[in-house]
Structure formats: structure tokens, C-alpha cells
Design goal:
Layout lengths: L3 H21 L5 H12 L11 H21 L2 H6 L1 H25 L4 H12 L3 H11 L5 H15 L1 H11 L6 H35 L3 H21 L4 H13 L4 H25 L4 H5 L1 H25 L4 H10 L5 H13 L4 H35 L2 H4 L18 E4 L3 H12 L4 E5 L2 H9 L4 E3 L5 H6 L7 E4 L4 H14 L4 E6 L5 H7 L3 E4 H16 L4 H20 L19 E6 L15 H6 L2 E7 L2 E4 L12 E6 L1 H10 L11
Parallel strand pairs: 1-2, 1-4, 2-3, 4-5, 5-6
Antiparallel strand pairs: 7-10, 8-9, 8-10
Helix pairs in contact: 1-2, 2-13, 3-12, 3-13, 5-6, 5-8, 5-15, 6-17, 8-16, 9-10, 9-17, 10-11, 10-12, 11-12, 15-16, 15-18, 16-18, 17-18, 25-26
């Protein structure tokens, strides 16, 4: 018995291994390697695979799993929060692209129905490619990442209506009636998913988890994802849309993270088959027959999508730089366009030769997506630099009128995500002056209504920082997910205010060195801090005393950050006393009731003899006393500024805490 399907899989994966490893040496992404593998192995080149239909079916599973995992990582609440991007951004991008492409095609001599169908094909972008590249780059949470994702969601929602319009354009089918019926079905499916997420999914997982069987848990995930996809396909919707809805339902449960980790290996394997199957459709001979025509089509697709999408995103109120970054990431042809093109071929809207030209140009745009995303930053910076800031800053109703804020000695928070909001809430409770800057106009509007001091704009622009009072600020905290924007912002902040303290949140350790070289005082890598938090929690579970836990964490932080910053010390632009206190720390402690230092005078030497730390200043109420006299006595609620090594600071901290046996006294 010959297992043809198994043989094909072995051949494809083996060839993919060789191709991807070879191309990775030239720093090309894996996606290009999979596309090249498909072209080589397909029936139109080396002919290793004679029947591509089975591979295409498995590739469809890859698309389903991709949308399923995207749904798990997302949430219904997040979807509602960016609904303006989905409906307005996605709707304008789709319909505007279709209209412009149809108009140009009509001028080129194509009939109106065929031109509209060309618009269908060009308007869609690749969720599979873009989401993978964004996740690999850690940019899914950036403004341009969220904007692109919102537009992609709308495109995916429109796949079925576009499929139903295709026969109508070809002169058959009931077109509009079918679209209305499917729209009603889609609404019913979404409503069903909402109630399923609240009641059915949690009950299923609760029963499965009780069995304590990992195999059963994985099986239940596949059943829910594939089952929902199949049910939606039976209702006339796409498999991928059903999978996305199932993922959204699971995302609302407490088991979403485990479900995502279990399904991820399956997704990666089947997604590689999807890209390989796309490459198998192409006849390489078409590249030799029409090379310049294909290049022209590729340039036309990228330019028309980049220009129109930039205009749409900018019209939504986002800064021009964000609009350009999002647009260039969406400048490729989508995987669902291939499904649509086959329907157009069968309906007579595409000739076999036009179909092959479309495939060649589409695969080229997919392969060029990593390059487009790489050059997007420099292109955006160049274009925005040519125009006045008033033209590029975003929606005028939210952009500032140029007047500076009246704050001084305040904190500037760049990025109002989870980290920014938590910091702002604590600063507000402590009555520390602060303001935030964010590029999302809807976030700015909502937070402004809630009384938050927040500005709209791109903080990497000097005009925005000037308006935020960068020259008078004490600290700027960069809490955004865009690594390139963070680097520009740090450099700009350091130039505009050489004495400001710059704190940057970043994702990975590799991003620390460039930030220190540009002038950051402190860089907090999530990757490193997560390991520290894990260490702390593990030790606490073993009932290790709190002071020992704090000592271990301090040692790890000291060793880790010293190692990470060693190469950057000569580049540091840090100014002030901390530049002269290598190995020392400055901290503040509140004198608590019943603590050893309460009521004691400095001349008694308790702080110095028992900890080795030095008292720098004391704040009592609104009065600050630097270098207090030896007769000074500590009172309850005094705040002491202390200087010492990490070990001395830990010892000093215990002197300001209530002595054992006094915590329960009144």
C-alpha cells in the first residue's frame, strides 16, 4: 500500500528544511523559504508533488488554526475597544481600494465587472503573513499593529460577501439576496458565540479539567475550534471566520493561555503547508514570459494599497507616521484572495493567463512584506519630516494648539497602555504631577473625559514633547511597544533636556544596549523582570523569609543589570549624582510608629552603626531639611532620604519598620 499523502508531506517538509535553512543564511524570513519550496516541488516545476489538492486541504487547516489562535489571544472586549478601526478603518480601506482599482482597470480597457473583481483581489491583505511577522517582531500591541489588525478583521469578515458577489459580477447568482441572508447568518453566529463564551465553553472546560487529562484537554480545544469552523461553513460562512469566533469564545475563559500553548505547535506545522501550497499553484514559466509586466503589477499593488490605506488611517485621526507603518505592512495580497481568484477563474472573470499573472504578483508581494515592514520606519520618518508637524500630527480636534503645559518637575508617560495607566493611577494617588501622551485618538478622548491629563500625538516628534513641557519635566517614562519609536524618543528627550531622567520599558534584553547608548538612564526589560518575578514567587512558595527573598532578588538584579550595562557605561548620558555613585543606591523610607529610629536622635548613631547607610535629607510635612544636625530627632511619618550600598539599604529599611512585638500595639 502506497501512502501518497504521507509521502508528499515528507517530501515537502524535507525540501522546506533545506530551503529555509539556506535562505536563513541570507537573513531571509521563513515564509519566503516556504513559498520557494512550493514553487520547486509543485507540478509546474520539479514535479515532486503531482496532486496539490490534498496539500491545499491541509493548508486550509493551517489558516483555520491561525485564525483560531488569533481569536484566543484576542478578546471580545478588545474587539469592541477597536471597533472604530474594524468598521471605519476596514470598511473605508476595502471599499476605497475596490473603487480605485476598478476605476483604473476600466480606464485600461477591462469591463466594469472584471475591474470590480480585480478590486476584490487587491483589497484583501494576508492575515497569516502579517500576524506572524508582527508576533515575531513583538509589535502586535503597537499602534500600527492594532490598526493593521483591525483592518484585517474587517477584511476577513467580508470574505463571504465577496465570494457571493463574484457570481453576480459574472452574470449569475442572486448576489444581493445571498449577501443579506449570509449577513443575517453571521449576526446569528456572533450572538451564538457570545452566549457560548459565557455559558457553554466554561462548562465544557470545567468538565474536561476535572478529568486531569491533558490529552482530553487538547482534544476539546481541537473539537471546539474545528467544530465551530465546520458549523459556520455549513451556515455559508468561511471556515477561518468560524475558527476566529471560536478563539474569541475561548479567550474569555480562564483556560485560554493553556489552550493557546497546546494548539501552537499544530498551527506552526500547518501554516508552513499553507505557504507551500500557495507556491505550488504558480507556473514558473509565467515569470520568464512576462517579467516586466509582473514587476509593474507588483509595484502598482504595493503603491495603491500603501497610499489608500495610509489615507484611511490618517483620516481616522492617527498620526501620519502610524498610518504609513500600518499601510506598508498591509501592502501584500491576502491568502483569501487565492480562494477568491479560483472562484473568479471558474466564473470566467479571470483567464488562465491572467490567473497566473495574479499568482506571480501576489506571491511577490507576500515575499516582499518583510522588506516593506523593514523600510516602513525610515520611509515614514522621511515623509513626515518633509511636511509641517501640523499636517502630520493627526486629528486636529485632538491635536494640541501649540501652547505648552504649565506643569513643572512632572512625569511624562509615553504610552497609555496597562503600564502607563497603572503608573498614572499611582502618581495621581500620591499627588505627583504627571501627564500622558498617546497616539490613539479614542483613548485620548475617553481618558480626557475621565479627567486624565493626556495629550494626543507622536511623542517622537519634538513639537509634542515641547507641548508636554519636556524642558521642565523631571522624568520621562517610555511605556510603548514600538522599539524603533522608543529609540527615537530617548534620543530626542535627551537632546531637549540633558538633565531629565529617562526610564524605558522594553521587551527583550537585546534592546537594552541601543537604548543606553542613546541616553536612557534605566531600561526595564520585561524578559529579565519576568525571570526575577518568577524567582521571587518560587522562593515564597518554599516559605523562604521575606528579607532573604528580597536579598536574593536584589543580588540577581544587581548582577543582571551590571552585566547588561557593562558595555554601555561609557556611552551613558546619565547626569546628576547617580553618575558618581557606582554601586550605591538612594532610597526613601517613612518612619513608622514603633520603629527603632522613632524618637531617636542622629547623634545616637543608630542608623549609621546598625546599617552603615548615610542620612542625606529628611522631609517632615512640606518642609525638607538637607543634611540635618546631630540633634535631629525622627518623628512618625518623617520621610528619610538615605544613601548606601544595596546591603546597607536593606539593613536600613528594617530600622524604619515597626519592631517585632509592637505591630499590634495601639
Amino acid at each position: 500500500m502506497e501512502f501518497v499523502a504521507l509521502r508528499d508531506i515528507v517530501v515537502l517538509f524535507g525540501l522546506a528544511l533545506l530551503t529555509v535553512v539556506l535562505l536563513r543564511r541570507f537573513k531571509l524570513p521563513s515564509i519566503i523559504g516556504f513559498l520557494v519550496t512550493g514553487v520547486l516541488a509543485g507540478p509546474h516545476a520539479l514535479g515532486f508533488i503531482k496532486n496539490a489538492h490534498q496539500v491545499e486541504q491541509m493548508a486550509e487547516i493551517g489558516v483555520v488554526l491561525l485564525l483560531f489562535t488569533i481569536g484566543i489571544e484576542f478578546s471580545l472586549k478588545e474587539l469592541m475597544r477597536i471597533r472604530h478601526l474594524v468598521l471605519l478603518g476596514g470598511g473605508l480601506q476595502l471599499f476605497l481600494t475596490i473603487a480605485v482599482v476598478a476605476g483604473i482597470s476600466n480606464l485600461d480597457g477591462f469591463p466594469a465587472p472584471q475591474g470590480i473583481f480585480f478590486g476584490f483581489l487587491v483589497a484583501l491583505s494576508s492575515t497569516a503573513i502579517l500576524m506572524k511577522l508582527l508576533m515575531d517582531a513583538g509589535e502586535t500591541d503597537t499602534p500600527q499593529g492594532k490598526t493593521a489588525f483591525g483592518i484585517l478583521i474587517f477584511q476577513d469578515l467580508c470574505i463571504v460577501p465577496l465570494m457571493l458577489f463574484t457570481p453576480f459580477l459574472a452574470g449569475g447568482g442572486s448576489g444581493l439576496l445571498d449577501v443579506v441572508i449570509v449577513t443575517l447568518k453571521a449576526v446569528a453566529v456572533v450572538v451564538g458565540a457570545h452566549f457560548g463564551a459565557r455559558f457553554v465553553i466554561p462548562w465544557i472546560f470545567e468538565q474536561v479539567v476535572k478529568t486531569r487529562s491533558r490529552e482530553l484537554f487538547v482534544l476539546s480545544i481541537i473539537f471546539i475550534g474545528m467544530g465551530t469552523a465546520w458549523l459556520t461553513s455549513q451556515a455559508g460562512l468561511s471556515l477561518a471566520l468560524g475558527a476566529f469566533i471560536a478563539g474569541l469564545a475561548i479567550s474569555e475563559s480562564e483556560y485560554s493561555h493553556q489552550a493557546l500553548s497546546d494548539i501552537m505547535p499544530f498551527r506552526e506545522a500547518f501554516m508552513s503547508l499553507f505557504f507551500i501550497s500557495v507556491g505550488m499553484l504558480l507556473k514558473p514559466a509565467i515569470l520568464l514570459k512576462f517579467p516586466f509586466l509582473i514587476i509593474g503589477i507588483v509595484i502598482f499593488i504595493i503603491l495603491i494599497k500603501a497610499v489608500l490605506t495610509s489615507a484611511v488611517v490618517f483620516a481616522l485621526g492617527l498620526p501620519m507616521r502610524i498610518a504609513i507603518l500600518a499601510a506598508l505592512s498591509l501592502a501584500q495580497i491576502g491568502e483569501f484572495s487565492f480562494v477568491l481568484s479560483r472562484s473568479g477563474l471558474s466564473q470566467g472573470l479571470l483567464t488562465p493567463e491572467t490567473y497566473q499573472l495574479f499568482l506571480a504578483a501576489s506571491i511577490a508581494t507576500m515575499a516582499l512584506t518583510p522588506l516593506c515592514m523593514k523600510v516602513a520606519g525610515p520611509v515614514a520618518d522621511y515623509l513626515t519630516g518633509l511636511l509641517p508637524h501640523e499636517w502630520t500630527r493627526g486629528r486636529s480636534a485632538l491635536a494640541q494648539n501649540g501652547a505648552k503645559v504649565t506643569m513643572s518637575d512632572h512625569v511624562i508617560i509615553v504610552g497609555f497602555g496597562v503600564n502607563g495607566r497603572n503608573l498614572a493611577r499611582v502618581l495621581k494617588n500620591l499627588e505627583i504631577p504627571h501627564l500622558a501622551i498617546d497616539t490613539n485618538p479614542y483613548t485620548v478622548r475617553n481618558q480626557s473625559r475621565m479627567g486624565e491629563q493626556i495629550l494626543f500625538g507622536d511623542a517622537s516628534k519634538p513639537e509634542i514633547l515641547t507641548h508636554a513641557g519636556i524642558e521642565q519635566a523631571r522624568i520621562v517614562v517610555v511605556a510603548i511597544s514600538d522599539a524603533a519609536a522608543s529609540r527615537r524618543l530617548v534620543s530626542l528627550a535627551r537632546k531637549m533636556n540633558p538633565s531629565i531622567h529617562v526610564i524605558v520599558r522594553t521587551r527583550y534584553l537585546l534592546e537594552m544596549e541601543p537604548l543606553f547608548m542613546l541616553g536612557a538612564n534605566e531600561v526595564i526589560p520585561e524578559e529579565f523582570e519576568t525571570s526575577v518575578e518568577i524567582l521571587s514567587r518560587v522562593l515564597k512558595r518554599f516559605l523562604i523569609p521575606q528579607d532573604v527573598v528580597e536579598e536574593c532578588v536584589a543580588d540577581v538584579r544587581k548582577g543582571g543589570y551590571e552585566m547588561l550595562r557593562t558595555a554601555s557605561k561609557r556611552h551613558s548620558h546619565a547626569v546628576g549624582i547617580t553618575g558618581f555613585l557606582s554601586g550605591a543606591e538612594v532610597g526613601s523610607f517613612r518612619v513608622q510608629k514603633g520603629s527603632p529610629v522613632e524618637g531617636g536622635a542622629l547623634r545616637e548613631g543608630l542608623l549609621r552603626t546598625r546599617s552603615g547607610a548615610t542620612l542625606v535629607a529628611v522631609k517632615r510635612g512640606a518642609e525638607i531639611t538637607p543634611n540635618p544636625d546631630p540633634v535631629w530627632e525622627f518623628h512618625e511619618n518623617d520621610i528619610a532620604l538615605v544613601l548606601g550600598t544595596p546591603e546597607q539599604m536593606r539593613a536600613a529599611a528594617r530600622l524604619f519598620e515597626p519592631a517585632r512585638g509592637t505591630t499590634g500595639e495601639s
